[in-house]
Specification:
alpha+beta, 6-stranded mixed beta sheet
Length: 271
């Protein structure tokens, strides 16, 4: 039995043939990272079946993720502390600007490129083992930002893009057993002008720090945050998720989640 069949075979799309197609497509992409669906599949019939699977309305990202979350909960059971690392990354789809549903993304301080914003929440052990994908947000900006910072700050938190960080906290409670201590790890970046002094980084935590050992422990937890940058690299440079063409964002999102799940497997293999 393949890895994907054993780990994703519990997916329920209402038709066992769809589940089989799901695990077959997942294993194919896992064995051929960096290739498009037509290149990875052995023939045109397999490619067509893969696209039909992603186009099927019974196939949803949440249903694709369900079996992965079950395995994730099992893996978390052997850990007292789980680090939930979240961050945002731009998927540059400028080559497919005509695709329905794309929005603007930032590149070199300009908002002229088209793509999606991908915000995953990935679970790691305190020593850096990738446990799995806890949840995600994928969204597009349909128009460039025009409001001033003052206007933006006055908006209700639910209307701000930053609300995705708060939503991820709720996902952690749902997908990690309650007896396990879940630590959310994130950063807030700021780039100073070239003529300014370097930033002094400050690590904030709501955990009590009463000794050097406890302080070092929290610093080591934060160091795991870099793993999500490697995770993005696996998705974009390894699986080349930005290079696959789809007719609309709905089907692309399903493919992104498939690759997001497979990226956790690659992270395990390189741990």
């Amino acid at each position: 039995m393949s890895w994907c069949a054993s780990k994703l075979g519990d997916a329920d799309f209402g038709d066992f043939r769809l589940t089989k197609r799901f695990t077959t497509l997942a294993q194919t992409m896992l064995e051929h990272p960096g290739q498009s669906i037509p290149s990875a599949c052995s023939d045109w019939a397999s490619s067509k079946a893969a696209y039909r699977f992603l186009h099927n309305d019974n196939v949803t990202p949440s249903k694709m993720l369900e079996p992965h979350l079950l395995r994730l909960k099992e893996r978390c059971e052997s850990h007292n502390v789980v680090l939930a690392v979240q961050d945002s990354n731009y998927l540059n789809l400028d080559s497919f600007r005509s695709m329905d549903g794309l929005g603007f993304i930032e590149s070199s301080s300009k908002w002229s490129h088209k793509g999606l914003v991908f915000h995953p929440n990935v679970a790691f052990s305190t020593d850096g083992e990738c446990l799995g994908l806890l949840g995600y947000e994928i969204f597009s900006r349909q128009e460039k930002r025009k409001s001033s910072r003052h206007e933006y700050m006055r908006r209700p938190i639910q209307e701000k893009e930053s609300y995705r960080w708060i939503k991820s906290l709720k996902v952690n409670k749902m997908n990690i057993p309650s007896h396990i201590d879940v630590v959310t790890v994130a950063d807030r970046e700021s780039n100073p002008p070239a003529d300014c002094n370097p930033i002094n980084w400050v690590l904030h935590t709501n955990y009590p720090i009463e000794s050097i050992e406890e302080a070092c422990e929290k610093v080591n937890w934060y160091k795991i945050r870099w793993q999500i940058e490697i995770y993005f690299k696996v998705m974009k440079s390894g699986f080349r998720v930005e290079k696959n063409r789809f007719g609309d964002v709905k089907n692309l999102e399903k493919f992104i989640i498939l690759i997001a799940i497979l990226a956790t497997r690659v992270m395990n293999l390189t741990y």
